[in-house]
Amino acid sequence: MSTWTTVLVASALAYALKVLGHVVPARWLDGERTSRVTSALPIALLAALVGVQTLTSSSGQVVVDSRAAAVLVAIVALLLRAPFIVVVVLAAAVAAGLRALGLP
Amino acid sequence: MSAPTGAQRRQVLRQAASVAVATGAYGISFGALSVAAGLSVWQTCALSLLLFSGASQFALVGILAGGPAGGAAAVATSTLLGVRNLLYGLQVSRMLGVRGPRRLLAAQLTIDESTAVGIAQPEAAAARVGFWATGLGIYALWNLMTFAGAIVGDAIGDPKAYGLDAAAAAAFTALLWPRLKSLDAFAIAAVAAVAAVLLAPHAPAGVPVLVAAAAALLAGLWRRAHHDPAPPHQWAGEGDLATEPGTRS
Q: What are the beta bridge partners of residue A56?
């Protein structure tokens, strides 16, 4: 799949889901199990992405490098209720700083 | 259908503006990360214009960073993250009561933040103002900031030297954070993260994320343990919503 195809297919599916929510009868999707799944889904996906982005190399090997330190700093910033953009910039700065010192 | 009073209207618009500015600002990090992941400036802008759902966009480019072979897994992850917008759509369509072209526009603007500001309002007229103002405000700022970030990212040389790979990991952490409101949520997150990392050496890029997510979901369903409120309520703490009088606490 070319990158443009990926971009356009993902966009079309995202919009289809949004429109579906606006047009299907509410009773099709109301319900405790549906809301449990839809609230658990982003938690599981985002946590898996945190794990992979923090601890694996581009070839899939498990590595601990400057990213792990950066994410720990990001977690401290989140505990201190820092805004999203501050958390992200801080993490980048920590990783860039450690690498400037010669760490992987 | 009563129009909101002047004071109500100002209060809703103030909330919408604060959420739109806070959310729009991190469009710059999306733009920079997307270009660092190998997408062009125009592909990056197309995602913000067309896909317009932060977590899905970050996930898509995060997985594509591992190479174009991850395309199918990237689309799958992005789409699964977008399923929650479907549920928001149910609430928003009841709240707005619009048809035709405005309904198609409302659908595109149905995301975490616009839904949260809408449903946080105590009455219907204010809810409609809140949804539209937040949605349109974020759409404008998110796209502008994405473009700015993509230009900056394009000008930067080696993304690793600037810690952009760590910024991606931090972005996912920050997107996850407001959802970790219960022990169940923590358990699901821990299972998914550990499973994905363990699978990573043995599966193509993007697949570990999907498998880990499926495993965690099944565990959550089977044990009937997961009882979080719907996510929009958690986002009502964004900006100064939680401290405004008359909003959901």
A: A62
Residue B17 has pLDDT above 90, yes or no: yes
Long-range CB pairs of B173-176, under 8 A, 24+ apart, other chains included: B173/A50, B173/A71, B173/A74, B173/A75, B173/A78, B173/A87, B174/A74, B174/A78, B174/A84, B174/A87, B174/A88, B175/A42, B175/A46, B175/B54, B175/B55, B175/B58, B176/A42, B176/A43, B176/A46, B176/A47, B176/A50
Residue (of B172, B225, B203) closest to B55 by Cα position: B172
B34 with B159: CB under 8 angstroms? no
- CA B55, CA A46: separation in Å to the nearest integer? 8
The answer, for B84 touching chain A at a CB cutoff of 8 Å, is yes
* Chain B contact set for A88 (CB, 8 A): 26, 29, 167, 170-171, 174
**B179 contacts A39? CB cut-off 8 A:** yes
pLDDT band at A61 (very low <50, low <70, confident <90, very high): very high
pLDDT of B243 above 50: no
- Alpha-carbon gap, residue B200 to A10, rounded angstroms: 23
Domain segments of chain B as ranges: 6-240
Residue B227's pLDDT band, with cuts at 50, 70 and 90, is: low
**Cβ within 8 Å, pair A89-B171:** no
